[in-house]
Amino acid sequence: MSLFITFEGVEGSGKTTQIQRLKRYLTRKGFLCKVTREPGGTPISEKIRKILLDPDHRDLIPLSELFLYEAARAQHIHEVITPLLKRGVVVLCDRFSDATLAYQGYGRKLDQNLIRKLNRLASRGIKPDLTFLLDCPSDLGLKRALQRNQISKNEKEGRFEKEKIQFHHRVRKGYLTIAKKEPKRVKLIDTRVGEERVFERIRRTVDELLTRSHQSHSRLVL
Ligand code: TMP
């Protein structure tokens, strides 16, 4: 049974920790599970990631930025996500198309309909079965992300952390709007309750989805 689960959120919302916890949980339950990320996930898409997140690339215009995210996605969908889903693997992806709508649409103020079209094209119509939106106030998340970058000396990926706080407020508002429009797919979780309780929420939601998918799968087999 294949499942496609994505994680979204403002900078420093704790996605990476929760994805690793979910991977351990699902693997213990016997599922084949693969973690991947956007931008990235294939050698070419990881190269595009470097271009996108390099803080020296101050001249990158919003439209080029949008195309690069979509190019990285097209490659990722073709090389990694589609083949894994066909093999029945559970795919956990750190960011996906919602990020483009939130960052390039709400953040950069590019045409949202254009972004929806490009998202559909690049992802070949593949949509997540479930999305976790890990939410926290933008200033709190940004503080955490900057601390993390300093600790890991990850200064090569700081282009977005350098944006003004107003940009991050718009991104958060974008994400919250997406969650409101698609409450069945997008589960909003306030991360201020702490790592343990966030994971409990994720675990319960995934268990419910697995039960439902298993039931409909059994019906098909019968
Ligand atoms: P990460 O730091 O969560 O790995 O994400 C990389 C950065 O790229 C993050 O600042 C969000 C941004 N981003 C976009 O602006 N548009 C997109 O479509 C994606 C996938 C990420």
- pLDDT < 50 runs, ≥5 residues: none
Task: Outline the biggest β-sheet.
Answer: 5 strands, parallel
CATH topology title: Rossmann fold
The number of helical runs is: 8
Short description:
The chain is α/β, with parallel strands linked by helices. The protein is built from 8 helices and 5 strands.
Explained architecture:
- The chain has 222 residues and is of the alpha/beta class.
- The protein has a single domain (3-215), classed as Rossmann fold.
- Helix content is 59%, strand content 13%.
- The chain has eight helices and five strands.
- Helix 1 (15-28) packs across helix 8, helix 2 (43-53) packs antiparallel against helix 3 (62-86) and helix 3 runs parallel beside helix 5 (112-122).
- The longest helix is centred in the C-terminal third of the chain and has 27 residues, at 195-221.
- The model has no long low-confidence stretch (mean pLDDT 93).
- The site of thymidine-5'-phosphate (TMP) has 13 residues, from helix 4.
- Thymidine-5'-phosphate binds at residues 11, 37-39, 53, 69, 94-95, 99-100, 103-104, 160.
